[in-house]
Specification:
alpha+beta, 2 strands
């Protein structure tokens, strides 16, 4: 898969994993495991990129004596998921065209 396409899809996967409730790194990895395998370093790179793009915000909370970073999706992040779904429809039309061999 093209690296840029894969990067975009992984970003959407992470945004979707926190769409309905705030979450933290380990839980995001666990929630995505049935779909895609992410290393911690890859996940935290994605989270930082999404935070810089204002698609999510971060808060720290103490949990079992340690600080845990919770990620919350923003309106911009929700819009990015919607935009991706629209783009995906276009991509599927192209895929169908290619598959038919026309």
């Amino acid at each position: 898969m093209d690296a840029q396409l894969k990067r975009g899809v992984l970003d959407i996967c992470v945004l979707t994993a926190i769409k309905n409730e705030d979450s933290y790194g380990y839980k995001i990895i666990k929630d995505l495991k049935p779909v895609v395998s992410l290393s911690e370093s890859t996940l935290y790179t994605i989270l930082k990129r999404l935070e810089d793009a204002k698609m999510l915000v971060v808060r720290s909370e103490e949990h079992d004596g340690r600080l845990r970073r919770y990620y919350h999706i923003t309106e911009s992040g929700l819009k990015r998921i919607k935009d991706f779904m629209d783009e995906w429809k276009d991509l599927m039309e192209i895929y169908s065209f290619i598959e038919r061999g026309i």
